[in-house]
Design brief:
The protein has 377 residues and is an alpha/beta fold. The chain is 67% helix and 6% strand. α7 runs antiparallel to α14. It holds the Pfam family ABC2_membrane_3.
Length: 377
């Protein structure tokens, strides 16, 4: 393998990236834009969900309970109604997403410690908003009941602590606020960094469409030299985003970065090698840019949503899907990014995933080199 040949191909590909505006946008700016778009779209924190209240009890206790329910920014009292028909009308028009119906015996049963009779009606056409309302109503109802029970116990002359044998104290490490963005954005980085792989697949297909690939193969440049020379510029371009994207996550979304940046940068280079090798395989087998783009989305971006543990835990997947996920560079890189961003773990834990990225990178490159000349023929 000649270093001079690789350098010539690398220089040619760098010139293509710099001169072709669409390639420059796809490689450098698209990952940044996609991270911003998906971070906002996928990490929306529900707030100010409108609810209606039908209070049949109309007591001081029920009024205090309603105030407890709507305290904070989660739920807003849209309207107090007088009948179920009014609730139905509000739900039909989409004015509220849930309704709370308080039983006429609410305060009496609560003070007698017989429970809290009430009903929650939700809009099933928007289950996420309705479920959010149910969750928060239940949590605040439990808190209200505990406070009422505590008052009753104290009035009876008992100590509250003496009646609570369970002393449960919950501590959340690494993401104390349980903010979805802190977990999701590091995982999204592993997906948006796949755009350079799409670019290299399109570049190979473009040369085949325009007949320039045969001209390159007629030169003394070997097939492995040609592939490596094409990979290097896209790896370098991807590494630019490896620096920019964490800075964006920290500065714009306040995602903590508790690990070593040199380690993150080095392991990201292994990921770029593996994912761009995957793009090389697509470019070798696809004869047109349209086909290369379609297959790239099916092999790189679509599995990035479902097979890398970004939204669904890998341990909960069927066995065949877990095996498929092992062949995806994004699976291992998502574990690396989350591990470095949040708990700040080091290479002593992450080395198996680094080894897998190296193995995948060399495997994909070897397969591409093996079939490259055959596909040209």
């Amino acid at each position: 393998m000649s270093f001079r040949h690789i350098l010539a191909i690398t220089r040619k590909e760098f010139n293509h990236i710099i001169r072709d505006r669409s390639t420059m946008i796809l490689v450098v700016f698209t990952p940044l834009a996609m991270l911003l778009l998906m971070a906002y779209a996928l990490t929306v924190e529900l707030q100010h969900i409108p609810i209606a209240v039908l209070d049949y009890d109309r007591s001081a206790t029920s009024r205090d309970f309603v105030q407890q329910i709507i305290s904070g920014n989660d739920l807003d009292l849209y309207q107090q109604v007088g009948s179920i028909a009014e609730i139905e009308d509000l739900l039909m028009h989409g004015d509220v997403k849930a309704a709370l119906v308080i039983d006429p015996n609410f305060s009496r049963d609560l003070l007698a410690m017989r429970g809290m009779p009430m009903q929650v009606i939700i809009d099933g056409t928007e289950p996420e908003s309705g479920g959010f309302a149910v969750e928060h109503i239940a949590a605040r109802a439990e808190k209200f009941a505990n406070e009422a029970l505590s008052n009753q116990i104290q009035m009876m002359g008992f100590s509250e602590e003496s009646l609570q044998p369970l002393d449960l104290r919950i501590r959340t490490w690494y993401n104390p606020g349980l903010k979805p963005r802190n977990d999701l954005i590091p995982g999204l980085i592993s997906m948006v960094l796949g755009f350079p792989a799409l670019s290299v697949a399109l570049a190979l297909a473009h040369e085949r469409e325009h007949g320039t690939m045969e001209q390159l193969m007629a030169t003394p440049v070997g097939r492995a030299e040609l592939l490596v020379g094409k990979m290097i510029p896209y790896i370098v371009a991807g590494m630019v985003n490896v620096v920019i994207l964490p800075l964006l996550a920290m500065a714009w979304f306040n995602v903590p970065f508790n690990g070593s940046f040199p380690l993150y940068f080095g392991l990201s280079a292994l990921f770029m090698f593996a994912i761009i090798s995957m793009g090389i395989i697509i470019g070798v087998f696809m004869k047109t840019q349209a086909a290369a783009m379609g297959v790239s989305f099916l092999m790189i971006f679509f599995p990035g949503f479902f097979l890398t543990g970004l939204f669904f835990p890998i341990v909960s997947m069927p066995e065949i899907m877990r095996l498929e996920s092992l062949g995806m560079p994004g699976t291992h890189y998502a574990i690396i990014t989350r591990g470095i961003f949040l708990p700040g773990i080091g290479l002593e834990i992450l080395w198996p995933y680094a080894v897998m990225l190296v193995l995948l990178g060399f495997s994909f490159t070897g397969i591409a080199a093996l079939f490259f000349r055959k596909k040209l023929g």
